[in-house]
């Protein structure tokens, strides 16, 4: 069961410090921690808060009316999710699951609206987040339409490792091949084949954790 804790300051980005700002307010913000595999919210739940990842990772997935599940996003510290509540979404359209021990800051809709109105730096950061999310969705669609499953897998691994952004080594917790297959729209056997190929070529390394080498970008760029 999630437990309440004090927020930790996010290390991503400069300027407005969301956790510190909310920590100075009364009552204190709600910060919940989730063990790996625990559900933050489920598809169909009431939507009342915007969520902000302080540490760990979140998988967003949804289930169709025929029962087929699809992974739609993998999120990292500094990402928002559940923001549909700001545009009148009353129920969650997807399920959010912790893929690591995860700390999530829950921001009530009214408080989020006040932040957007009163804190220009925070508002700029949130708008940038939304624009990047939209660009990512467009790129994902083009990726599905035009690229091979091998390129889609390479691109997904690079995105999960936040390739091109400042930060530490591109090392991730191991991600199941079933999850990767769902994310890129192929079979587990194809993912297994390409993961072994990438490892033999020295593009990735995995033994408990998954390290993404920059040379994996060559797979995406190669025609």
CATH superfamily of the largest domain: Jelly Rolls
Look at the structure and give the mean pLDDT. Answer: 80
Rounded to an integer in angstroms, the radius of gyration calculated over CA atoms is: 18 Å
CATH class division of the largest domain: Mainly Beta
Largest beta-sheet characterization:
5 strands, antiparallel
Count of β-strands: 12
Write the H/E string, N to C: EHEEEEEEEEHHHEHHEEH
State the CATH topology of the largest domain. Jelly Rolls
> Helical stretch count?
7
Principal-axes shape call: globular
The fraction of residues assigned to DSSP E strands is 15-25%
Q: How many structural domains are formed by the residues? A: 2
Unreliable segments of 5+ consecutive residues: 1-14
Distance between the termini: 48 Å
Under the CATH scheme, the architecture of the largest domain is Sandwich
Keywords:
223 residues; Arc Repressor Mutant, subunit A; Jelly Rolls; 4-stranded antiparallel sheet; single chain; 5-stranded antiparallel sheet; disordered N terminus; 2 domains; globular; alpha+beta
SSE map:
Blueprint: E1 3-4, H1 18-23, E2 30-34, E3 39-41, E4 49-55, E5 58-63, E6 69-75, E7 80-81, E8 95-98, E9 102-108, H2 109-118, H3 120-146, H4 149-160, E10 171-173, H5 177-184, H6 188-200, E11 204-206, E12 209-212, H7 217-221
Antiparallel strand pairs: 1-2, 2-9, 3-8, 4-7, 4-9, 5-6, 5-8, 10-12, 11-12
Helix pairs in contact: 2-3, 4-5, 5-6
Q: Quick gist of this model?
A:
This protein has 223 residues and is α+β, with helices and mostly antiparallel strands.
